[in-house]
Here is the input.
Amino acid sequence: MTVVVCVYTERRWPQIVRAVGSVLAQDRPAAQVVVVVDHNPALLERVRATFPELTVVPSTGPRGLSAARNTGLARAIGEIVAFLDDDAEAEPDWLARLLPHYQDERVLAVGGHAVPAWEQERPRWLPPEFDWVVGCSFTGQPTEVAPVRNVIGCNMSFRRSVLERTAGFDPALGRVGRTPVGCEETELCIRVRRLEPEGMVLYEPAAQVRHRVTVDRATWRYFRQRCFSEGRSKAVVARLVGSDAGLATERAYTRRTLPAGVRRGLRQVRAGDRGGLLRSGAIVAGLLVTAAGYLSAQALRASQATSAQAPRRRADPAPVRVLAVELSEGLPDVPDTGGPDGVRYGAAQVLVRLHGQPLGVVDVALPAGGLAAPALTAAIRARLAAEIDAHLRHDGLPPLDRLDPGSLGQASGTGDALPAATTGAGTCPSRRPAVAHTPFVSVVVPTCGRTPLFESALDSLAALDYPHYEIVVVDNAPQVTDTARIVAGRAVDDPRFRYAGEARPGVAHARNRGLAEARGGIVAFADDDVIVDPGWLRGLVDGFTDDEVAGVTGQVLARELDTPAQIWLEQYGGYGKGCQRRRFDRAGIMTLDPGGARRVDQPAPSLHPYLPGAYGSGANMAFRTDALRRLGGFDPRLRSGEDIDLLLRTVLARHALAYEPGAIVWHTHRREPRALRRTMYLYGVGLGAVLTKCLASDPTTRRDLLRRLPGGVAYALRPGSAKNNRKQESYPATLTALELCGLALGPAYYAAAAARLGRSRR
Here is the structure.
């Protein structure tokens, strides 16, 4: 047997001496010990002077651990070659435990167990499932001798003949200096098995080494870096050997080991160990940061491939004109002029209504010179014929195929609108006079007074087509007097306006103050940067069809899509949830016909009910006031995502939620990429914190959610999932990575916020 120890820096000299000394002290001595020095002449001379009896050589390949190991392999004389890291110490029986397994000719490699030797105390937050981050064995590995896909790098051995036939380690993988990357042993073991399909790679837990973990590796920063780098390395391995072989072990680890670790951490919390929550959160965070690294590597490779084929920089998306049309009033021409900075609009996003009811959003390309009304008519007919027919039938009117072909004509005297018979009131709920009791509604508008759209938002709220409501403006920055002055000025002529101050920062605190001030049986919430449709409040109230419905959300549409950042947010999914009326409860999702009758039970998605973003947005929602108070209002522990948390809690409490697309608000998306990047990060933080709260709060929910964790990861990462299928080629991969990083850090934010809130209450 030959033992190879690779070294690269004099800063590790004490560890190097101990590592080499542990090899020389083996119960079963090695025939040869090779020390490879990675591009450090001073260290090379020092090792030669200290260990003249050993084979001490410089690395002959590029910098990095893989090339150094290949150098050691080239100088090896033993039939078996073992590798020990320069910061590890082998137990005296290490080689004696490894070597006997090679009596079986099928055995190609044998690896052992690496125990962490902490320079200081083990971090409370680090779960044993992630000891691989510090180069050690981890929970989930076998506890007795067993075949494995790959060995661990600091404690492994191979048949030399097999390594020579595979050309050794791939220099494209592996650590370079202090850069925390890896996976070179994974890729090598997969190649070895392909070379010898009948062969075995064994794990021998009794062959132990103590792997030193320095203070700098016991930090959250190193944990993130190592997980991210591991994800990037896994992407390279998957490219080299295929995702089936490259990720098979990781899939099992994600499905079984990590959920079990989260459950264990939460049980420890109940037993009084608060560190259990940190460890559970670190498991989720580590998984997501690793996934973000994997995605970023894939995106970089795709970008490089695209650049190689077309050296020109990928163009940003052209501006998109936003407009709404009413079919009963005719359709206009759509010009392509008037874009930002004189740039022409390349497309249009058209909200199509009939009798005031939204039927769908149609995206059409705008040719040079714009789109004539007949072409817009054809696009709408092709996309929304079924929706138009359904609406007309419900109103007791002829379906579209029985109307004159020009019936969806042009406005402005160039064509006909829908025939006169179709423009009557019929039974359409938007055209019926309100005869039922209209409940008094409190509209809560939280604000910090910083948005330039604040007064426009108040103007639109004052013009609502609803008879009984108040507007409670909650000032979340009361030290600045502008908001109080604006509201006081409006209240002089319009007593529906009320002012309330909330000094505690955070939209959850502001909304809870509005809830406390609300005098209506229904409380609705609108952001300070939206323009509400005149029928917004009536649409929300119409959603409370029975006592089971505790909350209603509405449709949020973009006011403008002038910049790439605004368009990317729409590709991400925006805030709009479509024009189909839906009802959500714990059991599943139900579609509703235009009159509100139950129509079709849709099969519940595999992640239902834990996709709260599908329920709606905090920028447009309403609740029964008493139900919302019983639910406890909004959770101030959440830095972001307090709205989706409330929607999820509503469904988990066995209430129903309704989605009413006719309750429309128009939102001005952030125009700058920097603001969008922050938004995407906070989206991830919010969802991560909400899921952490679910895991920590209820055992039944915890088991249910953990069972779905692998599917949730696939949903977040798979390009064809409902979450990602709207993203176009121009959508930046950095936005996805930021969202995943936020998702990974959400548990930490939640734990810190919960601790702060607990201290403040004491």
In short: The first strand starts at residue 2 and ends at 7.
